[in-house]
Amino acid sequence: MAAELLGRIGGAAARAAVWLLGRVVERLVERMSPSNILVIVDELFSAVGVREGAVVVKHAQELGDRHLRSLKAEAGLIPRPLAGVRIAYLVFTSEGASRRELSRHSWAHTALMWNMDKDDFKRLNEAVGGPDFATAWRLCGGNPRCLFQLAEAGWDAERYLASISSSRGVRWVVAKAAELGLTDALKEAVEDPDILAEPSGLRLARLLESRNFVVELSPAAIGGVPSRDPELGVGRLYAWQTPALRDAVARALRG
Q1: CA 63/CA 53 separation, integer angstroms
Q2: Gyration radius of the chain's alpha carbons
Q3: CA-CA distance, 49 to 94, in Å (whole number)?
Q4: Which end of the chain has the least Cβ crowding within 10 Å, N or C?
Q5: CA distances for 147 relative to 69, 181, 190, 250, 252, angstroms
Q6: Distance between CA 2 and CA 222 in Å, rounded?
Q7: More confident site: 13 or 172
Q8: What integer is the mean pLDDT of 170-196?
């Protein structure tokens, strides 16, 4: 809901939306007197952009700081009961560029959350009626959103690959890489995404991250860091968001 609100009002008014969110929290405290509040925001950066999103997170951090709230309560700027409540903000994003921006600052704690492991993904596949787990795993590598999209495509792998190639602008990315003289590097990244961590792959890494095609892996990972798996497009330092997206890029490269 918060991301939808931010998207409607635009990036320029994102800070006002955080102020409004703070007012909602104040009302919750007044009416329900909770001792702990967890505010969850999904895909904030998709709604307002990377730079504005970082500012929003900064404002959220200040709203959650009990010391600052105590000072504001003493000054009569916020209701006094709000000073004693523990407030935490959990912001989810699927964009590597936003995680990189937040890691520059000391007021935000970032952690990578990778896809589901094979056993849990198998159970999800069974729950949604997936007819072929091996194909689903090969295309999605544990990504639940990918599985749901594959289901929408009637479990047809070719149809799904064609769909994401169009919706994610794969041909544009391949053409942009060619314009920048990065076609050879892109071909290497299809085979081994860790090329993106090398000096020759940094420009390509930024291009692919900006389109949410790849993610830089981190030791600080919720649920553990994924193991290197070339078949799924997972390296030691970088990984494709899904094997299917990597496959769509490979097909576009082949023309």
Answers
A1: 15
A2: 21
A3: 12
A4: C
A5: 43, 34, 21, 20, 22
A6: 23
A7: 172
A8: 97
For residue 216, give the nearest of 199, 192, 191, 241 by alpha carbon.
241
Cα separation, 136 vs 143, in Å, equals 10
Cα distance between residue 12 and residue 169, in whole Å: 26
Does residue 78 or residue 246 have the better pLDDT? 246
> Mean pLDDT in the chain?
81
pLDDT grade for 167, boundaries at 50, 70 and 90: very high
Please state, as a whole number, how many other Cβ atoms lie within 10 Å of the Cβ of residue 33.
Answer: 10
Give the span between the Cα atoms of 95 and 118, in whole angstroms.
23
Interatomic CA distance for residues 158 and 36, integer angstroms: 48
Most confident of 11-25, 26-40, 169-183, 215-229: 169-183
The pLDDT score that the predictor gives to residue 24 is 76
Please, are residues 49 and 11 in contact by the beta-carbon 8 Å criterion?
Answer: yes
Burial of 218 (0-12, 13-18, 19+ CB in 10 A): middle
